[in-house]
Input
Amino acid sequence: MGIGAIRTRVDMSKALDLQQMESLYRVYVAGLFITLLNPLTIVGWLALAGNFFETVWRPDWPPKDSVGLVAIFVILLGVQTWSLGLAAVLSSIRKAISPNVLKWVSVISGVLLIGYGLAAWRSALGLLFNF
Output
């Protein structure tokens, strides 16, 4: 992904054509499923929900057993609402940014993705081989 982001050429005429061809709904659903199936996201939200139930849940509220799934659903609904709002804001900002700035954002993002991937591999190898 990082190399692909670095190699991406920004052509605003093509970007506008592609944007018209693909519906926002399709893009949002694809991003939603990528996020929902990402193991790091799953672990992160499980940790957030566990922390919420252990530190925020008050004794005078209904028992966790009876409304826990509702609370998790509301947390996930909030996350999706935030994601949709953020996608809308970023989409509108993208239209106002010049192709040169988009190119540099893509290159910097690619370098950061490569660095993150290398750090993840180093961490995984360190766990496997204890170094």
Q: What stands out?
A: Helices lie at 2-7, 12-21, 24-37, 39-56, 64-96, 99-129. The mean pLDDT is 78. The first helix runs from residue 2 to 7.
